[in-house]
Amino acid sequence: MTRLKKNSLKRLPEEGGFRPTSRTYSKFNRIDGRHPFQKATKDSFVAYRARVRHGGEVVAFNFDLAREMGLIPKNHPNVMTDELKDAILDTFAIVIINEYDQINNIEYPKEDIKPHFYMATRYLQLQHPNKQGKTSGDGRSIWNGYLESKNGIWDISSCGTGATCLSPATHIQKKFFQTGDPSISYGCGYAELDEGVSTLFFSEILHKNQVTTERVLGILKFPDGFAITIRAHNNLLRPSHMFNHLKQGNLEALKMVVDYYIERQEKNGVWTDMPREKNKRYDKFLEKQTEVFAKTAAKFEDEYIFCWLDWDGDNVLMDGGIIDYGSVRQFGLFHSEYRFDDNDRYSTSITEQKNKAKYTVQNFAQIVDFLKTGERKPLKEFAQTGWSNEFDRVFEMSKLKNLLYKIGFNKETRDALVDKHYELVKDFQKVFSYFERAKSVAGPKEVNDGITWDAIFCMRDILRELPQLYLSRGESISREEFIEILKSSYALEEDLALSSYRKKRVDEFQVLYWQLIKAGATIKKSTINTVLLDITMRSSVINKYDRVTGDSITTITNMLMEKIDKMAPEKLYRLLHNFSEYQNLDPDTDKNLDKNQWRKSQLMRGFLKVVREYREGL
User: Fold this and answer.
1) Of 294, 296, 506, 570, which one is least surrounded by beta carbons within 10 A?
2) How confident is the model at residue 62 (pLDDT cuts 50, 70, 90)?
3) Is 147 domain-assigned?
4) What are 298-321's pLDDT values in tens digits?
């Protein structure tokens, strides 16, 4: 690990009075492969020794996240010192010594071999031949360890650290692969640089918008063109870390993982009301996971986030956090028929994610009963037990409050509207959904990574513009103007026809919207104009014209890849920070933007142009 010489630290530019010492980067030394999961569980990981991977460069470092984790001091400037670079490379520039290496007796310099074992965790994966999780898990990733600081406990993992025995390729082709084997793509164990850059930007933007996600701490690049993406989150366990033991009927291992997860949530202060009696703890675990996945499914649906939830619980964390951004999308419109083409099958759609989340909770219900009784009953027996009604209730309430949030009401008013005017909110949700889900007469079509059916109305536009027009005019707008504001670039002329039915829906939308405004004014004991003004301000942020989509992130990543070889980590960080702050759509937080960079940076202006161009896309 990094050992700083007494006089080796360079003097940094004056910035907040910061002066590094020999202890400034000492917390990197704690990240050495060891993790409490290794001692707390069994049959849950494969242990690997690791060796130094030479020639690495630090391409990106998330100073904000590092400070939040307590990995660097709070007053550390956004500067990549030589010592910080060395600490990052010493800690994270590694590659595992895998089965291929061992079978072929490949020797490495002793000084390059790390002292502790790292783990590739086992979990259930849909694409594996074995559907019980006996062969699946981290195929090209390892857990670097964890960091415990004043800001909680953080799990840290890296993608691109070598081919493990848990990748699909190993078991489909029934052989171990040498790390970097060019004959196999995913199974080679390495990761692409553009994958890491895309994940860095996308995850940070979603994090700023209160979407739970793992985040990128840093990216390393190597002479062969491959990269390592370093990721962090307070708890990196997935449902699939439990589902493999459930499917195998391994009660002892399952109990260990569930107990470990509950204790970690308590240690991080996420769960503060857990009972002490074991069975009651498991019941509470099910209650909390039901709430988490109901709210997550509602959030994904309302924010147009495609995350490919499926039965194996592999694509999200236990807390509903997003991982693995390879197929993640955020749509500009409610493209509810989009499906990702994964070669041998199509993915779920956005609207199907609710039932997939519900099925995930059904597995949790089976787990809890198994832990309490010692008998693994058939999964179908848990389809309509108490958790199911609770899931539906939480999902519905979350959807209603999410819609009121998008309109622009603050939390206090949202809660009161749902409590006192439930039917009114439900009625508005129905007519809102009519426009949101309207699709083009052109029908389904292929896109470069799947299939879709174009949505034709942009709900963000009408929610942003309507309160401003009402405030200035004091009355509803014409049906024709309503459709003109609402229409998207995907809409054909015949898609926009004002049939008698659609005229009724336009009128109904505006009548119910006005009723919500009046109800909000009564709740706040305020005037209608005051409420409209507040909603105008909030909605203009929430429903910003230029919001990123998956397509825009892909295009921005391609732009960055053309310049990244000559870009210092500090510059990439500034781009990340400013762009994610610009895309922060929370009206209740202050934005920390460097306006000079927007004026001076041609690349940043290019980002904005891309976002506007793809604002309605996939």
Assistant:
1) 570
2) very high
3) yes
4) 999 999 999 887 766 568 999 999
